[in-house]
Write a structure and sequence with these properties.
3 helices, Heme-binding protein soul2, 201 residues, signal, Reg_factor_effector_dom_sf, SOUL_heme-bd, 9-stranded antiparallel beta sheet, alpha+beta, 29% strand, heme binding
């Protein structure tokens, strides 16, 4: 299966876009797959500032970010790409990253979560899903702050690195949305070494 295991997804908190359609050379951690395109604006000691171009995603809402919820959501997206759509067509799955997006309400209450697969630039028309909960989304051009780390990740590791990113951004005087974060995964569970993970804000 394409989708990364839960620990990988929770470790990578970022909207990350890599390989574009205009001769852009994607970083090695994209593994020669299609990824959204970005430009590195600045590199800091503890994080990187990137400018991403507009990108497209297939997305489904999730009950939460537990292992069960994430697996259920990504299974829906995976099935959609594997002919489970009204046209009975296969959708390109040679793309990274897969995303978990979370938005916290300001009073510290419940979170809204969604799961997404990146859509390759050449897939201009996608088949209509059989599952009405799956939708196509366009993510506008944006600036993302990214903290990179390696290894298999747990929710604890993710939260630990997210705190470090938040602290580094605050110390650097960077403005960011402290209630919305995105976890981006670049490897499936079969990748044991050289894993690439990112926290972003």
């Amino acid at each position: 299966m394409k989708f990364p295991e839960v620990t990988t997804l929770l470790s990578v908190l970022a909207v990350v876009f890599l390989r574009g359609a205009h001769g852009w050379d994607a970083p090695p951690f994209c593994h020669s797959y299609d990824c959204p395109e970005f430009t590195v604006v600045n590199k800091y000691e503890d994080f990187e500032e990137r400018a991403y171009q507009v990108s497209r995603w297939i997305t489904v809402d999730s009950q939460g970010v537990s292992d069960h919820d994430v697996k259920a959501g990504f299974t829906k997206l995976w099935d959609y790409t594997q002919w489970d759509n009204k046209a009975g067509e296969h959708v390109n799955t040679h793309t990274w990253p897969a995303l978990i997006s979370t938005t916290e309400v300001e009073d510290g209450g419940e979170k809204h979560a969604s799961l997404s697969f990146y859509v390759a630039p050449e897939d201009t028309v996608l088949p209509t899903p059989n599952d009405a909960s799956i939708r196509n989304e366009t993510m506008p051009a944006c600036t993302i702050y990214v903290r990179t780390f390696s290894g298999f990740l747990s929710e604890y590791n993710f939260q630990e690195n997210l705190k470090k990113l938040r602290d580094a951004l605050t110390q650097a005087g960077k403005a960011f949305d402290s209630h919305r974060f995105i976890a981006a995964g670049y490897e499936g569970p079969w990748t044991l070494i050289g894993r690439h993970n990112e926290d972003t804000g």
